[in-house]
Amino acid sequence: MSNPPQTGYALGKVATIDEKKTIEDEHLAPEEYIPNSENVTKHEFDTLRHVGDRLPITAWLVVIVEFAERWTYYGTVNVFSNYIRAPLPPGSTSGAVDPAHRDDGVAGALGLGQQKSFTIRTFNTFFIYSTPILGGIIADTLLGRYNTIMLASIICLVGHIILVGTASPPSLAHPQGALAGLIVSILIMGVGAGFIKSNVSPMVGEQYQGKLRKETLASGEVVIKSPAVTIQSVYMYYYAAINFGALGAISASFLARDHGYWAAYLLPTCIFLLVPGVLWVGRKNYVHTPPRGSVLVDCVRVIKMASKGKWSLNPVRTYRNLKAADFWEPAKRSSYTDADRPKKLLWDDEFVAEVSRTVKACAVLIWFPVFWLCYSQIDGNLSTVAAAMQLKGTPNDLIQNLNPVTLIVFIPIFDKIVYPTFRRWGWNFTPIKRIFVGFLTVGLAMVYAGALQHFIYAKSPCHDNLPSECITPDKYPNPAPINVWVVSGPYILVGIGEIFASITSLEYAFTKAPKRMKSVITAFAQFQTALSAAINFALTALNAENMFGWLFGSFAIAAWITGFLFFWTFYDLDQQEGELNQIGIGEREGYADEHPAGDNKA
Fold first, then answer.
1. 90/155 same-domain check
2. d(Cα 177, Cα 92) in Å, to the nearest integer?
3. 21, 76: one domain
4. N vs C: which end of the chain shows fewer Cβ within 10 Å?
5. Which residues are listed as membrane-spanning (predicted)?
6. Which pTM does this prediction carry?
7. Are residues 231 and 139 part of one domain?
8. Are 519 and 506 a contacting pair, CB within 8 Å?
């Protein structure tokens, strides 16, 4: 079998155009066209402005699915903090606050305290971001993305129904039973939501099937309709849908305070019915990716073959060997003759390039636990900070909805104004640069939070005796004289950090993964949140109100140090962004399609 042709442009070489394509300019050498484009030359690619293409209706349908699923998720977990931490308000059986004391009253139910609340919420985060790995493998190898999401929606719905039932007044009369129902529902919903998360993200990206092409605008300007820019927009609006859904927590906060937790959990359960409904409506129109077997085994074989003999007891030598320019050569088919080629080498050179790109993507993603540690503070601890401030009728867990509001407001601004302006100026704001800025931004959010906590302690009537639990003699809250909306700063800054870093991580996982590993690599990106939750478990002692100042300050320093180390580590990778995006998109569909699972032919 002869060696397959390489995608020359992807490797920085001269590409060859298909003989069937028409050459519009007789003075233009055929080899200058970019593979898999509609007659776009490398010169045009480098000099013309890149713009996004129109998104297909099926992409918007998947966005609606994500909106409904996230409404249900955030409309449930965003009130977990008070539900677990605070006791039933005086005279309440449902968790609701008496109307006469709603100005500064806090809803509650189980009364387990801040640290137990933190532990349960952190476990929920860890579990729900661990299960996507299994969901990704099942989708890529057995059921396909569409069927996996449909199955997961049924599982998730069962968990929500259990939660509603165990949050009812008769159940809350027996706190241990209500706690058991909460744990069971967390486990069931974690499986369902996790399976959905690993598959909805790549499913929305693959709805766009356009190619690189030229187009003349009404102004007469010739531009490049770029799949890379289009995918960036896809994930911007996908993330906006997540945060539109997160606004469901606004209604949950008021429903919990005014009517009790059974009502707060019932509304998201009803909204969730949109997930299987919308999926069913668009079933004949989606771009479906069928299960095609796993390439994980062959990915491991490629890495093992490439790294053979590269390990040493000397860590410096090992590092140099693994970073060597020719590291992947021993795993390439072109490195062997037909006679000496290993029997297990069933792939072509393009597949090795895809594995190399995937490894680099995973190396980028493993830095994200520090980012999600900072994010986790707005997910719970800052609600406790808000509970120590003057609420003036605002539920303390309502403020965290400023984070999705920030994203909803700023995502269109970044997509339509900020990023296009950068491209017009010729500044390529690559994923590595965006992630770097995201780390700096969340670090700044933690500085703000730490300074605010200092002022709350100074002004609280209880001073150092846990301001969030400071009460009057008749057992009603006695807050620090600071308006609760002052706490909005960290939520806004973290939201902007997510635009730079979190959205980019989803885009990066989708664009860098081979076709048969997109769900798994997306799940790997989301698993970084689970790792941050595991780190948070180790920091349980610091997640106490009297330690918040140290906690926020430490996370700020960690985010900034990580950001600069990240950019220094991946500076060279940043320069290769255009080349990496071209790997595996030529006329050849890649090893994944040439060698289906179980094919042992060389």
1. yes
2. 18
3. no
4. N
5. 126-143, 150-172, 178-196, 235-256, 262-282, 435-457, 482-508, 520-542, 548-571
6. 0.70
7. yes
8. no
